[in-house]
Queue: 2 jobs
Job 1
Amino acid sequence: MQRNILGTRIPAGMHDFLPAELGILEKLEGKLLDRLRRWGYQKVLTPALEYAACVQPELDKDDELYKFFDRQGHILALRPEFTTPIARMVGARLRTLSLPLRFCYAGDVYRSSSAQYREFRQVGVELIGSGSALADAEVIALAAEGMRELGVADCQLNLGHMGIFMGLMSELGVPSEVQGALEEKLARKDLVGIESLVRQSDLSDQAKEILLKLPYLHGGEEILDELVRFSKQAEIREAVNGLREVYGYLKDFGVQDMVALDLGILRGFSYYTGVIFEGYVPGVGFPVVEGGRYDALYGDFGFPQPATGFAIHLGSLLGLFPHDGLEPAGVLVYGADRSEVIRRAQALRSEGKRVEMAFEVVSPEVEERWVEEKNISRVEKV
Amino acid sequence: MPRNFLTIALPKGKLLEDSLDVLSQAGLACRDVNEDSRKLLFEFPEQAAQIVICRPTDIPTYVEYGAADLGFVGKDTLLEENKDVAELLDLKFGYCRFVVAMPEEKVPPRQADGSFDLTSLNHQRVATKFPRVAQTFFSELGMQVTPIKLHGNIELAPRVGLAEMIVDIVSTGTTLRQNHLVEVAPILEATTRVIANRVSYRMKYKRIQELVERLREAQGLGDS
């Protein structure tokens, strides 16, 4: 049937990959997965369709899921990320394995409100069953190595900690309605809103000062000293010590030069509970790496375990690479005797060559065009 | 391009003059930028910066994608565009208010506290340049209205029956009066804000923070 206008298009935010571009994507993905496997991460894959109750438990929240109904009337959703589906999978099927578990993944995720692509490739890891600072350091170092492996040497990873904001809230005795408003503004990165909220509050001057300063604490270990001077609170001490330990290990891993401490990473209050990090690349307006510790998520699936991980947004990085990902040049075989053409082509293939057969005898002009278009280095007439 | 190079997006129109003033006071020599010439891009290589002039409503988009590191934009536009950008500083100029207004002969009755009783406006049409702001305001009151998006001369809509009321920004109220419209509810107040791309804000942190501090001083905001 002749397609109508809609039938010849693709939905907003979707993307066709032609050979050259797909070649790049797969090359990058292959490099990354190799690196992740070398650190002991095993690849898993969860389905593209999940129950919405798994990936978005708070259905009343304004979300960015693609949702569908199945025949029984249940709400299904395309996965918006891999961390939650992997938690579901581990909680349901892998509880008896020895901890920690190391899994990696590569696949497309779907977000209907995303400014860029709405279907994009993520490659990432989950490290499940360890709350140690070394586990945090391992995934951060692996993210850094992964970015180096991709050839994005000027990637910068910024490292923060969710416990510092939460600790400040309880230390300063911030009333819960103010905390809620602050979290909302923090998630929107609305520093103007935070400033006016804090200034209008009944908090002490010292509390106001530290809250207003928090988004600007950025640099090396000296910012942790600065924070500790402000606060005696246990949760903050713990967060600061955790960050110090992680930062130290990153030196041992040889990636500390790519990492900055940054207490101003403004993240909505998602599932993250401890160390969080984001990776940036000059020229890409969105974070290309997102990760951190999420110690409460596995409890939601009846298997309370600390966990940490990251995802690299491979799709956002594609623009940094020239689209020359074509297969290595091949051989074109043609001739008048078709049986002979088949035998020659098969013989070359068994030697590992990439071979295309022409079904007819081709003219020199056609030959010339194919050599150009199909990246062919040799033509054999048999 | 060096790592600390800054691209700043400024809105053409009424905010441009004040934006340039405050930027110059903050040490960026950008006096020769103006929108009368057809130029849209002004380079300041010795200051490692460039300024682009955009339509106000496009500024959040330039900044969200990182095409501009910083943008100057009215809070009204920022709310309506709802982009993922960091809002760094209130420059306090370009003050205006969002209001709901209606033809004077149709205003609803007042309540005991003097405010208008808006409940009779349920299910009516609202002409506005800011459908998101309008929708949010009315849904927070538990009301349903139908926003009708227009691009200008909003005050005309009720006079010809396109909508029962309007949501618009006012600075003095003259336009409302000239069109026999009465403000029936304030929504919120807006001033010009400095916004930053979320990656630039972390990668060009020092440069941006320095500029923001100087802008803050230039505005005489201090810690008042």
Job 2
Amino acid sequence: MKAIVDCNSFYCSCERVFRPDLWNKPVVVLSNNDGCIVSRSDEARRLGVGMAIPYFQARPIIDKHGISVFSSNYHLYGDMSWRVMETLPTMMGDASKVEVYSVDEASMDLDHVPRHKLEDYSRHIKQTVEQWTPGKM
Amino acid sequence: MELEQFVGMTYKGTRRFTQHEIPTANGFGAAADDYMERGIDLNEQLVRNKPATFFMRVSGDAMTGAGIFHGDVVIVDRSIKATSGKVIIATLNGEMLIRRFEKTFNKIRLVPETPKLSAIDVDLSGSEFSIWGVVTYVIHSL
């Protein structure tokens, strides 16, 4: 069995790590030069902020609901991504079983895990990543 | 130009080589090579679990009694379980706090180490509380 790891609203999760005041609050992250929305927290999504739409188009919703807006900070996301991608092989005990696909995605080989243990195993990995790093999965 | 190679005028003070890598170095020095070590690496000494470890700068005087002062850097490990008596980074109602964690069977208290502040009894039903990480070391400038 193979597993796909994908972090939820990764850039937003990163921006919120050190900002408990923004946990459970709507947050969006903008692309380079603040052009488009590249990441939205669940709360922002529910308020109707579209994915990858230009900032100026989302502006009315953002202002109306007081959504927090961040310019992208790739140093931060890179560091947090490294943490997630380092945690996975540590959990698996074997780096060759993990293939990093992007800043917040990876696939893993779970062939060694018996079928009936897969769910527990996956939950354990998810919990550990969420405890160690800001990545929400 | 040729002289530079031998007296090492361009040597900048880093030593990212071993004697084996320098073909002209032989004799007694090479024997010491088997005992070469990299020196003390503070990351290795102070960081137990790198992906879960964060460095944070402390603001405020809440923990001066524990030797943690305003402006100090603390090393925080998110993979360690917070047990009673540990210094932790807590989040309480959207704020980050550094306090000593005290847990009895039905009560959580965040205790400062200064007479200027009082302990906080955490009301688990009416407040947003979580443990962000456990403080493992403090780096203090003298």
